[in-house]
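Here is my example:
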Amino acid sequence: MIPRTSTAALVEAVDGLADAAIDRVLLTGERVTSAADGRRLVAGKADTEALADNIQRVVVLPVPVIRTLAKGARFTRVPWVMVASTTVSVGIAVRTGVRELQVIAALVAHRLETGHDSPPDPALVKRVAVELYLDPKHAPDLSGDRLRLVRLTRKWIVSGAFGRNTSKQATKALDAAERLDAPAVRARWAAR
């Protein structure tokens, strides 16, 4: 059984990482003006050194979970090399996911700023970016107060552990962000 405190700490670490990544985009004024620019940035070298401490925290927290699962293997012993390589893969997936989320947030911020005198609410940018990143096929769900951080955490950890590539879904999220009806989203957010 995986300890609940480990899971809660991991979700909290992902929340802090997502906050820091999106705040960095909003504070630096780094904007992406189109999905094509976003795809180019995602494919390029990631500049996540400023978030290295937060990324490291997210990568270190699943190690006890991986070790617990490895100890629980009944039929075969899981080599520690596999645990270490899985941890490295999770680290790469988290770093890639953070960059994808930053680029999506930069495009969302640009779309929400266009035609408005005031900058968008950082909570709105974060909410829309996470929603589009997790489910680019549907309009962002702005109801409720909670972000889908457990799902974001699961996405990054599972994609790292199993070596899944998230670039295709990030591309779909960028396309969805480019089609975003910014005035309607701002109005729905203000009406909440």
In short: Residues 4-191 form one domain. Residues 26 and 40 are 19 Å apart (CA to CA). Residues 80-113 form the longest helix (34 residues). The radius of gyration is 17 Å.
